[in-house]
Amino acid sequence: MLSGISALLDAVRTLERDNGQAVLATVVKVEGSAYRRPGARMLIPLYGGTVGTISGGCLESEVAKKAWWLTDGGEAVIRRYSTATHDDDDDQDAALTFGLGCNGTVHVLLERHSAEKPLAVLELLRQVRESGQAGAVATVIGSYRNARVRVGERLFLHPSLTDSGRLLDPALDAEVHADLQRTLTDGHSSLRSYRDARGEIEVFCEYLAPQRRLVIFGAGHDAQPLTHMAKLLDWHVTVVDGRAHFARAERFPDADTVLQVNARPPYELRALTDGAMVAIMSHSYSQDRHWLGSVLQGTPAYIGQLGPRDRTERLLDEIRQHSPHLPALERLHYPIGLDIGGDTPESVATAILAEMTAAINLRAGGMLKHRQAAIHTPTPLDCSEIEPATRLSAS
């Protein structure tokens, strides 16, 4: 089962194997409300269905229908789509309006990909996925007419690359490269503008995150829906258990890896759990004590312990008798999951993944009806005003 970037990259591999062609559609800018954020991608093969989404389903058909015509000249183009209720602007360059009442505008970059002329950004996505190391890419999404730099041109940053490419003159390239380094360090995408002697260039500095990793300690029945749902989120999932009759690959067909590991010292899975989301749910007191005590010594992104609060506190008391210093204690959530009231394995998995997602996004996990701020944090701008895309050209 593949989803997200995994499904897109798999489709690209198939396309290249068959010497096919496709258009890559990428959300590069959002104004107002929109379902997907900048960085969302959809592959539109010449033959066959699309892979990926750039909206909640309202834009995909229109984009796929016209993507090949819009890129017929071979050059990358930006297309704007409005989700407002109506649009009185008769300008032929105005955004297409879908009457959804969301009052947002989505800017989509369309560019051709084939085995003969591959898109370097897809290769970078492969490198990020295979290496597990984040990357960053600066994509030109607007420029003045007759500029030397064109829409769709890019600079890249990744440990595997020796040459990040060139866009403008050396001084401006150095500025873009410095912003890419900040993008990589901060882990957030942003819109930026740069000015040369003739005009302004608008650039989308995108953070390309490595695949999120989930390690589940415990291969019981309730770990099965958790594994399945995590794969729907395109996470890499490893299931670990000390019991051979539980830790079997056929019980977890969706998991990337299933390991049978003795739940006793020494702990040799530090490289696996550091930086990962960790769920401890073995339903074995001795296993949970070993896994929890070991993981608390590392640097996981999140730790969740299944079970009643007093059980976990007893575990912690016993762990502290041997290891008084627990560096990752502040990342421990117990009982694991959001309070949604369910008691089936599927509802428990939903609560666990909901809390993990909230933790990743620094959210409390409450009801959206009580949220006063916007649902999505706007993509940061580095300037007070950027020239609208309708007045920018790829030529």
UniProtKB/TrEMBL annotation:
Residue ranges of every copy of the XdhC Rossmann domain listed in the record: 214-356
Family matches, as InterPro entries: MoCofactor_Util/Proc, XdhC_CoxI, XdhC_Rossmann_dom
Pfam (any one): XdhC_C
Top-rank taxon: Bacteria
Ranges for domain XdhC- CoxI: 17-81
Residues in coiled coil: none
PANTHER family the record matches: ALDEHYDE OXIDOREDUCTASE MOLYBDENUM COFACTOR ASSEMBLY PROTEIN, XANTHINE DEHYDROGENASE SUBUNIT A-RELATED
Descriptive protein name: Xanthine and CO dehydrogenase maturation factor, XdhC/CoxF family
Species per Swiss-Prot/TrEMBL record: Ectopseudomonas toyotomiensis
